[in-house]
Design goal:
About 40% of the residues lie in helices and about 20% in strands. It has about 400 residues and is α/β, with parallel strands linked by helices. It has two domains: about 150 residues, Aspartate Aminotransferase, domain 1 (Alpha-Beta Complex), CATH 3.90.1150.10; about 240 residues, Aspartate Aminotransferase, domain 2 (3-Layer(aba) Sandwich). The strands form four sheets. Strands 4-12-11-10-7-5-6 form a seven-stranded mixed β-sheet, sandwiched between helices. Helix 4 runs parallel beside helix 10. The relative contact order is 0.16. The mean pLDDT is about 95.
């Protein structure tokens, strides 16, 4: 089908939960994707920080094909070989002692909330159930995770929401100290707020948050759904801050494009999830864990993290140099290859995104005035340079 045919069928049969661009993508390879009319684009959004290795990476594609002819699905009532191997690898390269696999970031965060409350209940502290999160955070679309999200716009129309969540300004350690008390089960923070505008944790903020948690017997949950799997230049973003949480969540980039979420925890906390306390039918099935295992091994063996750091430095240099010469940009923020450009005077980020798409570049937004870049971690400097030429032209045309 061509673009028009795909879009007409989509509009007819799908619930209208997305304000979709007039574009139907049908093929991808590396940093490039093609639409139903055969036009090529450079993808600087990566399925919203999902395709960290680019589209259809040979190692991931091969693992999916090999697994598909062996075993697609069995219940978690049985042991699953690639699931066990992936869990072992994640515990080897992260702080975690144990892993629970889900289907998405929202499910991983829902599991983290449940685990924190179950841990406190197991200690005889059933009244210690409140979760502190940050303003402008984003933790998912289930009822509990959208309640945990510090943005009112995602909650409209879904009342009554679950009780037990408190909110503080991001990066304000005094506000966090005032909010954490004897009834706090956990503090849940993103090391870098992606959907909230691409704001990074200030140096020392996460470490101080951990100190507060330990003082009050609360757990520190780090939502690394968007930052995990190398997006910021280390496998988990918290590694750069030398912070070891009690719980962390992953999804997006973990599966190389295949849906998977992961809940990571230290032994003391993970032990609260005994048989029957939490479960999933599809989470951690043979296909998704085989893909994630290949993606994670490739991330390590092919020095993808090194390329991420190098490309990030080049990208930031280009953006900051341009920002210094134009009144159209008020700030460049982010880390690794998760970058936000704040347009001056409440500039229209969506309009910039559309113009870039017309020119053959796919990017996203992170709020009304923030253009978000999240290319594959395999992106090269020539591709970044090509984007920058067009990005600069568009902003200069806007005056």
């Amino acid at each position: 089908m061509n673009n028009k045919e795909i879009m007409e069928l989509s509009d007819k049969a799908l619930m209208p939960t997305y304000a979709r661009f007039p574009l139907a993508l049908v093929k991808g390879k590396g940093t490039r994707v093609w639409d139903g009319d055969g036009r090529q684009y450079l993808d600087f959004l990566s399925g919203i920080a999902v395709c960290n290795l680019g589209h259809c990476h040979p190692a991931v594609t091969r693992a999916i094909c090999e697994q598909a002819v062996k075993l697609l699905h069995v219940s978690n009532l049985y042991h699953i070989e690639p699931q066990a191997e992936l869990a072992a690898l994640l515990t080897e390269i992260t702080f975690a002692d144990k892993v629970f696999f889900a289907n998405s970031g929202a499910e991983a965060n829902e599991g983290a909330i449940k685990l924190a409350r179950k841990y406190q209940s197991d200690k005889g502290l059933a009244d210690k159930y409140r979760i502190v999160t940050a303003s402008m955070s984003f933790h998912g679309r289930t009822l509990a995770t959208l309640t945990a999200t510090g943005q009112e716009k995602v909650k409209v129309g879904f009342a009554p929401l679950p009780e037990g969540f408190d909110y503080v300004p991001y990066n304000d350690i005094d506000a966090l100290a005032a909010a954490v008390g004897d009834d706090t089960a956990a503090v849940m923070l993103e090391p870098l707020q992606g959907e909230g505008g691409v704001h990074t944790a200030a140096p020392g903020y996460l470490a101080k948050a951990l100190e507060l948690c330990e003082q009050h017997g609360a757990l520190l949950i780090l939502d690394e759904v968007q930052t995990g799997a190398g997006r910021t230049g280390t496998f988990l973003a918290c590694e750069a801050e030398n912070v070891t949480p009690h719980i962390a969540t992953m999804a997006k980039g973990l599966g190389g494009g295949v849906p998977i979420g992961a809940l990571l925890a230290v032994d003391e906390v993970a032990d609260s999830f005994g048989p029957g306390t939490h479960a999933t039918t599809f989470g951690g099935n043979p296909l998704c864990t085989a893909a994630a295992l290949a993606a994670t091994r490739t991330l390590i063996s092919e020095h993808i993290l090194e390329n991420c750091r190098s490309a990030s430095e080049y990208f930031f240099d280009k953006l900051e140099s341009f920002a210094a010469s134009t009144p159209a940009i008020s700030e460049v923020r982010g880390k690794g290859l998760l970058i936000g450009v704040e347009l001056a005077d409440n500039g229209d980020a969506a309009a910039v995104v559309e113009k870039l798409m017309e020119k053959g570049f796919l990017v996203g937004t992170a709020g009304p005035s923030v253009v978000r870049f999240a290319p594959p971690l395999t992106v090269d400097k020539s591709e970044i340079a090509a984007l920058m030429v067009t990005f600069e032209e568009i902003l200069e045309e806007q005056g």
